[in-house]
Amino acid sequence: MKNFKKSILFSIASIIITSSAFAQNLNKIKPGDHVVNKSIEQFEGVWQSENDAFVLELNLCKIAIPLGTAKIDGIIGYHKLEVGKKVISESLKPADQKDVFKKATFSAKGIQGKENSIDGYFILDKNATRYKVLGNISPSKNELVLTFTPSNPKGITINKEKTVDVYKLPGSITFKKKI
What we know:
The chain is α+β, with helices and mostly antiparallel strands. The protein has one domain (33-177). It is 15% helix and 45% strand. The chain has helices at 2-20, 23-26, 100-103; strands at residues 34-35, 45-49, 55-67, 70-83, 86-90, 106-111, 114-123, 130-137, 143-150, 157-158, 161-162, 172-177. Strands 2-3-4-6-7-8-9-12 form an eight-stranded antiparallel barrel. It has a two-stranded antiparallel ribbon with strand order 10-11.
């Protein structure tokens, strides 16, 4: 029961944190509204890390995130992590649109007043350490720097299982847009 309560609390906290960015405008959103954020379109595409230790590829997509009967633009994504030419973690974009949120391992929103920045969350595996992500795109729009900060202490219980480190990501990773 204790693990179930922790799991519920973590889920509620995640929803509150994600929704808090829109809290100032929630009272202005009416049923059926679609809050458009064109500045996050520049983050769409396939991005690949530039380092020797591993290759992390992110496939980021702009999507209308349902909020009741309204929608708000955000970014979701899928990843592939290779270490030594071996895939150790992967999430693929599903063919069926109803599964896009279930399969996504990256979610972010634009930052009000900073059109070249996003913040959100990333996870390598459903039971792995979750990372808070802050991203900034270069003026040329072909380089993305993401800063990863573990957002839950190692060992907390999610889905009745202890979190594990699939692979420990460094604090900051630079990505290049793949063409």
